Amino acid sequence: MPSPQAILKTYGLQPKKSWGQHFLADPHALARVVRDCALCENDALVVEIGAGTGALTERLVAPGRTVLAVEHDRELAAVLRDRFRDEPSVEIVEQDFLAFDLAAAAERAGGRIKVVGNIPYQITAPILFKLVAARAGVVSAHLLMQAEVARRLAAPVGAKDYSLLTVLLGRVGHATLGARLSPACFHPPPDVESRVAVVAFDKTPPAVPSDEFFVNFVKACFHQRRKRVVNSLRGQPHLALPKPLVAALAERFPELLARRAEALNGDEFLSLAAFAETWRG
């Protein structure tokens, strides 16, 4: 299997820094990422985010499995089409993953699918929000990302890394940490460590609060994370919360609103958001 460096040289290409391109090049690291993908014979269709030079793509190929390799970079998409021209199980999708139709992919597969990939650091949050929104068709995501962000996804309540992403994910699933990779595993090397986060969408949240309201409510609570929730909710830009509503929350949940957002667990956020959305009608 040719290295990403060799493939880029063959096609006269260079990594695009503005696109956040850091290609996983170490064979042992690639094997660890594939292991964290936990693919089995039932995974008849897999979506890969940012296939790049195809180093991970070729390791996802298996009898009876279709790999939808999504790549936004036109030049790399052309490379992929050339590399896999004799591999009918690999379909190259030249598209921004944020515009990719996961529901259609799941419908094609006849069930929920797995999503894998070495994702660009700068769009990690939008990718995660998209996966949360599309969870009806996604059973799990196995993503190589900045190690700091991966830790946030799996952080316990009260930890330094506990964040908005932790809470939003915890409403619909849970995350575990996989392989930790040094910058030397990539071409070119990034400035930070990377880590696989395995996100399982295995929870069914209540109808109230709605997805959109819950996201904005939690953002409001974390707006000033070093302040108590009651103060963070006042004057934040994420959600229109009238003063009487904040007062009603403080009266109904005085102990919760006296804490910082990082000290509230997922169920407590759900209770606050459900009360607020119901109050607003």
Q: Can you give keywords for this protein?
A:
single chain, 281 residues, alpha/beta, Rossmann fold, Helicase, Ruva Protein, domain 3, 2 domains, 40% helix, elongated
What does this structure look like?
The protein is of the alpha/beta class. The chain folds into two domains: 4-200, Rossmann fold; 211-280, Helicase, Ruva Protein, domain 3 (Orthogonal Bundle). The protein contains 13 helices and nine strands. The chain has helices at residues 4-10, 27-37, 57-60, 74-83, 102-109, 124-133, 147-154, 164-172, 211-221, 229-232, 243-252, 254-257, 266-280; strands spanning 23-24, 45-49, 66-71, 90-94, 113-118, 138-146, 174-181, 186-187, 194-200. The strands form two sheets. It has a seven-stranded mixed beta sheet with strand order 4-3-2-5-6-9-7. The model has no long low-confidence stretch (mean pLDDT 96).
Give the topology.
Layout: H1 4-10, E1 23-24, H2 27-37, E2 45-49, H3 57-60, E3 66-71, H4 74-83, E4 90-94, H5 102-109, E5 113-118, H6 124-133, E6 138-146, H7 147-154, H8 164-172, E7 174-181, E8 186-187, E9 194-200, H9 211-221, H10 229-232, H11 243-252, H12 254-257, H13 266-280
Parallel strand pairs: 2-3, 2-5, 3-4, 5-6
Antiparallel strand pairs: 1-8, 6-9, 7-9
